[in-house]
Give the backbone structure.
Amino acid sequence: PDTATESDASLPSTPRQPTPLVLSPPRIPKPNSALTAPPLLSLPSVLLSLDLDPFQGRLHSGLCDTRNAARVLIELARRGQTLTANRNVPEGGSGSRSREKYWGWMGKDGQVHWDAFLKTFGVDKLPG
């Protein structure tokens, strides 16, 4: 006959073995006390030192760099780390024209002074 029927179908002589499922072990981060400073302060080095997945995307692409930096900040926050500034960002220029960048909400005491800053725009306080 030209067509096969159920009775004509042949079964394999040995049953097929199921493909084993390989699971990766769960990522268990190092405790904070076991963390060491990365050899370089590049995003890929920092991600690896925190036991996070490697850099995702294209290095030095603004969006990819930002997403990976956010992963670092999220992980540090998850670990309960407090972030503090460790340097000032220079505004530019050279010699006597060089000065640190300053925004109106920055207090000379290192604190954020939103209320005083907003009053310069006629706003009494932030909503909410």
In short: The chain has a mean pLDDT of 74. Strands lie at 90-92, 99-100.
